[in-house]
Amino acid sequence: MKATAYVLLALVALTGVVVYMAHASERSDEEADLIFGIKIPPGYRDWKLISVAHEEGNLNDLRALLGNDTAIKAYRDGKLPFPDGTIIARLAWSYVPSEENNKAFGRAQSFVAGPVTNVQFMVKDSKKYAATGGWGFAQFKDGKPDATAALKTCFPCHEPAKARDFVFTQYAP
After folding, report:
1. DSSP of 116-148
2. For the whole model, what pTM was predicted?
3. Looking at the domain assignment, is residue 172 inside a domain?
4. CATH code (residue 139)
5. What residues form DSSP beta bridges with 63?
6. Confidence of residue 5 (pLDDT cuts 50, 70, 90)
7. Domain range holding 59?
8. pLDDT value, residue 27
9. How many domains does the chain have?
């Protein structure tokens, strides 16, 4: 009985994510961010999953990291540095408890993605972004470039991952 409840709960959650992602991938935002000139890539929500993460502290969010075909091939082949044309997307949602799930489990233990906080992109172009390790950075809120984003701090934050071409996220097949 419990196994059936878990499976049903997982299917309901997955259906919600798929419906949300399908709706969001239809957007055709054309505004570029102000620092690196990056636009939201069309169809990015259909890219393959690289990894997921939970950030605590001030951010307290859930993240999905997606990669375009170039990124996924480089990850799978273990190719560093990443080739030009690589794009990595980071989608973030607030991290909230699920009362509905907790009722099914009989105790407080479930957290789910809440409201979207932002979407970020890393775009590899070794010539265009030579000053920042070959990567351009962008952040969007509600489909619009985030004018308040401190994107000038992106590269310094990524410098500790220089040995992995400034990319923190590792791929586990």
Report:
1. EEEEEEEEE-TTTTGGGTTEEEEEEETTEE-TT
2. 0.77
3. no
4. 3.50.70.20
5. 53, 92
6. very low
7. 2-164
8. 43
9. 1
